[in-house]
Structure formats: structure tokens, C-alpha cells
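Morning run. Coffee first, then this:
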Amino acid sequence: MRFIGLGVFNRLGRRFSYSAAFLACLFVVPAAWSQTTPEKKPAAGDTLRLEQSDDTNARIAELAAASTAKPEDYIIGSGDLLNVEVFDVTELSRDVRVNESGFVSLPLVPVKIRAAGLTAFQFQDKIAELLQTNGLVSNPQVTVTLKERHGEPITLTGAVRTPMVIQAVGQVTLLGALAQAGGVTTDAGEQIIITRPAHPFDPNGPSDEQATTIKVDLNAVLESGDPKYNITLIGGDVVNVTRAGIVYAVGAVQHAGGFVLANDHEQMSVLKLLALSGGLIPTAKSHHGIILRRIGNSSQRQQVPVDVRKILTLKSDDVLMMQNDILFVPDSVTNKAMRRTGEIAISLATGAALYRIY
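And here it is:
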């Protein structure tokens, strides 16, 4: 077969060379083109992955659906209309409205009864206890049902897809509220801060001048699925999903993008950022690097020159980076437009993919 193949090759002559050239166009040219494509993705084994916010939000929706509150778990609030039925005692059976302070009044009962903050089962047990303690009914059988719910606003802000205000017309859980807001954004941090105002009807709560701050770890909620992290929200709560710190590496680096810090307090430096972005490309002008840093809370940025080459060769100290810093390393092309360096870096960072550090 070997000699036959050589004979065929000789007969074909130049025709084979054309075929070879055609095959080269099919395989070599696309391969070369793919190497020059500016968009690069992390290779397998990298210590970072593209943030999959859709997966995170699908998990939020899944857990929220699984933890749907049962009607008997509903927490009574001010403004709710309740039906109180005392078996065989028509004088005490009636509809009652929970006042703004969270209390209701029943005839013959000498004190107002706190209803807000309790479930219907808890409230009916409390009524039965008071009726028996005051000698009104020897063996009271009380049933409480909810006839009308009076919603109170719950505010969702921060790194959620749709900041919004929802009405707490039933028992609203943290995951349920996040699901209603469309989930979290790609730059969401790990911490959720819930600010709860003082409620005058809550004897165990803070005073009128104080508010309670509750901190919840989002990863703990999603990874464990433990209901204890999926706390119940009440009217007036403000839920703030914090934004994680982001630093950007753009220009002549292997994997340009924004890197979402898993821990906002983690110290990020130029060396660490270069390692996460896969290092520099061969045409990088590493001695002309800059860091674009915000000036206070304004939209303006200052340019901090950074000699990346000296840092890499240990001839200069590593430089710490701050949240929202942009490290820009020009290459042989962009170096010709150094007067527009800031505009180039900001433009590249604006459309950069976000990567989360794990």
C-alpha cells in the first residue's frame, strides 16, 4: 500500500498540492484565527470561573418555592381583620381588627390582647388562657381565622436585578423576596443586611428610637438550604444585598475582565490580579501600566503609573489595589495612543466579563 500511495502521489502531482493548500485553509487558518481572537476564556483548572448568576437565581427560586409558608404560619400584623370564635359563647365571638399598636379588644376581657407578632394558633391559645384566668369561661375552645390581611412594605435594594417594594400581605421569607426581585446581580456580595425598624407592638424588640440590623450570609443560604438562614421578613424591613468588591484587568492580559472578590476585605494586589488574569501577552508594554482609581465618590478617575515589569522582576514593591480599580497594561498597538489611555481602559472595563474568585 505504501508504494501504491507514492505512485498515486506522483500521478496527481500539482493537483495534490492544491488539495493540501485547501486543507490548510480549512484547519490551519481557522486555528490561527482563533489564536488572534481577542476574547479569551479561562482554561480548565483555573482558580476562577465565569459568574453564573442564572444558576444562582435558579437556586434562589428553587429554595423559595420549597419553603413556601403554610397559612398557619402567617404572622398577624397591625391592620389585619381576625374572626374570633369561642365555642358556645356568642357574646365573645366576633370579628376584630388589630390596631396600629398590635392589640385587639374583646368584650368582658379586662385587658387588651396583643395579637401582632403571633400566629393564629398562638393567638387563640392566648385568648383561651385569658378567658380561663379571668373566670369568664371554664373550658374555653377558641378558634381564630384570618379574614383580611393588611400588607406592609418590604424594600429590596442593592445588588438585586429589580430593586422594588413588595407588600407583606402574608408571610414573606428572605428567599421569597429575592425571587420576586428577580434574584441577584453578577456583582452581588456574600452578605445581606436587613434593617428592621422598631415595632411598638413587639415587647421583645427595640425601642421606638432603635432599629435592628440582621446580617445573613447568602452563600450559607444557598449552599446549605437550611431554613434557619431563610428568615421571615416583616413589614418595614429593608433588605440590602451588598455589592462585592470588583477590580479590573484589561489590555494586554490573557483573560481581561472584572474579578468579583469573594471577600470584600481581601487584599488585592497587582501581582494577584495578573495571576488571576492569566498573565501578560507577549506584546505587552509592561513598563507603561496604569491604575485608574476613582476620586472619592465622583465619576472622575486619577491615573496611577505602575511599572508592572519591575513588580514582576521583584525590582519594585507590589501595589495594593482598591475596589473598582482598573489595571490597564497597553500593548504595542494601544501604546501608540497613550494620551487616550484612560478612555481605552474604561471602555474595555465597561464591557468586560465578570469572574468570581473562589
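The chain has nine helices and 21 strands. Good start to the day.
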